[in-house]
Amino acid sequence: MDKNETQRPQLLRRNIVLERCGMSTSTLYRLMDQQRFPPPVRIGGRAVAWVESEINEWIEARIKERDNAA
């Protein structure tokens, strides 16, 4: 079986997303309001999380923007 077939989506809580992206909570929510950051998934009550692959894609896109600007 292919590795990708067995991988399941992983959810990241806010503190992990902030650490990986190097931003503050206010910046995270501002970017979401501007539709410039992936939306969270509600996981219960008031708890939310982000899909890890979407966060990785967002980070990769920032790197590509940087490289294309040079």
Describe the protein in words.
The protein has 70 residues and is α+β, with helices and mostly antiparallel strands. The protein has one domain. The protein is built from 4 helices and 3 strands; from the N terminus they run αβααββα. A 3-stranded antiparallel beta sheet has the order 1-3-2. It starts with a helix and ends with a helix. The model has no long low-confidence stretch (mean pLDDT 93).
User: In terms of per-residue confidence, which ranges show pLDDT below 50 for 5 or more consecutive residues?
Assistant: none
Strand fraction equals: 15-25%
Number of E-state strands:
3
Tell me the helix content: 55-70%
Within the largest sheet, what's the order of strands?
1-3-2
- Domains (count): 1
Which key features would you list for this structure?
alpha+beta; 3 strands; globular
Give a brief rundown of this model.
This protein is an alpha+beta fold and 70 residues long.
Q: Which helices and strands, and how do they pair?
A:
Blueprint: H1 3-6, E1 11-12, H2 14-21, H3 25-33, E2 41-44, E3 47-51, H4 52-69
Antiparallel strand pairs: 1-3, 2-3
